[in-house]
Amino acid sequence: MTIQEEIKKLKEEKQAVILAHYYVRPEVQEIADYIGDSFYLSKIAAKLENPIIVYCGVSFMGESGCLLSPDKKVLMPDKTADCPMAHMVLKEEVEAARKNYEDLAVVCYINSTAEIKSWSDVSVTSANAVKIVKNLPNKNILFIPDKNLGRHVAEQIPEKNVMLVNGYCPIHEKILAEEIRELKAIHPEAEILVHPECSEEVNAMADYIGSTSGIIQYASESEKKEWIIATEVGVRYELEKRNPDNHFYFPKTEPVCTDMKLITLEKILHVLKTEENQAEVAAETADAAKRTLDKMLELAK
Ligand code: 13P
Ligand code: SF4
Fold first, then answer.
1. Given 66, 67, 137, 282, which is the most exposed site by the fewest CB atoms within 10 A?
2. 41 CB-contact burial (10 Å; exposed 0-12 / middle 13-18 / buried 19+)
3. How far is ligand 1, taken at its centre, from the CA of residue 210, in Å?
4. Where are the domains of the chain?
């Protein structure tokens, strides 16, 4: 039996379901029941009936899975897979802003720990951040932890006072405007699709800015055939699958999220067999953290 067949057999026996983010390895995306961006995966996690969810992603995703599906076992193929940005804000920064602005809304990117979510009022993903912040009644917004997504949101909603902290995704920040300019010089017909976690300079060059799903959808619905892609290379698999006659050019430094790539078929099989590596959230933060995710799902409707 191949490892894929073993996974399928065990999955069926245990009525388990496999969720995967677009940044995981192609062979993991291939065996997943649901693949998507962070927003799609959280909506799916909230309504699944299966007793076991294998979450192929980093730890904040497993925590969100636990919070949204509290009666399920959420298994993480690699518990050390973590998002560095998910930790990049201090409680003191949130407390100081709350003292300074009476009407403050603390908006946290879903790429944050459950503890950070518990200090916040609402979660957002890159797919729904602009819509949710725009519709909040508050004028003063503290956006944590991603300064790049926060800046993108602020640019779309100039009527709000959006304050930022110094968090960032090390993988997207490393994509240089210079690399994108070089690619555009070689492929002048190509449109530039950018994830909002990229720097201000790269965002300024974009024809379209959106989440991983947004980028895939934009390219798939267009008549154009050439694309410069400023996000993690994992999206190449779905882009090429949906658009086999298109050409996708990535920065030559190949942005790779090494944490997402820790998820392998062997580790998926292991957790399915042993039911080890259960994601968990500390009891003292769970209720408040869950409220921010529930509010996101409600406001994003
Ligand atoms: P999206 O999937 O929401 O676009 O987010 C990208 C990301 O960095 C996930 O960790
Ligand atoms: Fe975190 Fe960046 Fe990896 Fe996404 S790509 S999980 S934001 S480090």
1. 137
2. buried
3. 10
4. 3-81+262-283, 85-169, 175-249
Architecture of the domain spanning 3-81+262-283 = 3-Layer(aba) Sandwich (3.40)
Ligand 1 test: best mutation among 56, 126, 152, 175, most atoms within 8 Å of CB? 126
Is residue 212 within 6 Å of ligand 2 at its C-beta? no
Q: How confident is the model at residue 196 (pLDDT cuts 50, 70, 90)?
A: very high
CATH code of 175-249, in short, is 3.40.50.10800
Q: How would residue 17 be classed by pLDDT, with cut points 50, 70 and 90?
A: very high
What is the reported pTM?
0.96
For residue 111 and ligand 2, the question of a CB distance below 6 A is answered with yes
Asked if pLDDT for residue 253 goes beyond 90, the answer is no
